[in-house]
Design a protein that fits this description.
Elements (H helix, E strand, L loop, with lengths): L14 H24 L6 H17 L9 E10 L14 H4 L8 E10 L2 E10 L10 E2 H20 L11 H8 L6 H14 L3 E2 L3 E6 L9 E4 L17 E9 L5 E3 L6 E4 L9 H14 L4 E2 L6 H13 L3 E4 L2 E3 L5 E11 L2 E6 L9 E2 L7 H8 L10 H17 L9
Parallel strand pairs: 4-16
Antiparallel strand pairs: 1-2, 2-3, 5-8, 6-7, 6-8, 8-14, 9-13, 10-11, 10-12, 14-15
Length: about 425
Amino acid sequence: MAEEVAVVDYSLNNPDTLTKYKTSASISHKVLEAVSAWCVEGAKVLSICQRGDKLLGEEVAKVYKGKKISKGIAHPTTVSPSSYITPYTPLSTDAEEAATVLKANEPVKIQLGAQIDGLGTVVCDTILVKADKEQNAEVSGREADLMLATYYANELLLRLMIPPGLLASGTDEEKKKAAAEKRPTPSKMTQMLETVAKSYECNIVEGTTSWLFERNEIEGKKKIVLLPTDKESRTEGVPEVGDVWGVEMGLSLGSGKYKVMDQRPTLHRRTTITYQLKRPSSRQTLSEIVKKFGNFPFSLRQLDDERAAKVGVVECVRSNVLRQYDICTDKDNAPVARLLTTIAITKNGITRIGAPPQLDVSKYKTDKKISDEQILKILEQPAARSTGAKGKNKKKKKKPAKKAVDDDEESSSEED
């Protein structure tokens, strides 16, 4: 008689699930910190991406040794220069792009992620490239506006992900009333986020999308799309307790509209579509992709033969076996900032599993600020219920957070 295969619970009800997410997040955070330090004036983007992936692989290899579970890279290291919106990872066989270097003061988007047992944690942070001696210098002007606007818009979006009434206090009747409140519609969410962006004379990047994360999938059944560009990219589903999401916020100093570049797409991922590929090179390339990356995104430079991969993916993309990520930039070539946070929604609110480092708002100087009282009130609210000893520090952090929003004076927002 055949042995029954145990069914593994990959929901957040299983403590092991959150442990695996947190393990992958610790790797993502460590590599993000290292990659950020490598992003200095004159550094080659290709070299940074290669070093980032090497470090991701080394750190993943250190955990869950001897366990029969999959583990690896959930998103390759990408470094997107100033006006680039989408993740960018050049190839060594494309000489012109391989020579791309970082420029001083440009906002650079770093995105990467690790996965343990198919549970991926992806993070994206935006940093301003500085010369070595200027790493701790204050930032002013339009760069400061962009960084602050993106930070506060992201904080607002995270709070809008919380199901109504989840963190309500008071009597049972008051909690029930709060839970019955209507969720903000996608258009209402966009309107509120635009208010934050325009407070700093910025605009939301059209098509900015947050996705439900599932096992072996970082573009799940639900998504929230800001300023969708067509009917197929509209919001589907709502955030609920038990969900894991990749929450994205992108802002531009330009119009927020994008253009697709003529450059070769280098980032791909496998789809659920099956097709009998005709070319042997295509079948060989797909076989390597399935074995190494599963359904997670990958760069062509991660395949054994980069030149052969460039040929092998053509039929795969044409037959929709692979999805290619076009390289998009701001239509006005204006600077763009982007953040991505992997969160879990629990009964206690938002848990930031993988997140960019907290922005030190005291280093960013501007005369602009948010004045909308409703938004200020939401930003002052915690994203999670206090549990245990951490509650002692909440009040100390909450007050300076308001001061930063209102006055842009020295402060640091609460860490939820």
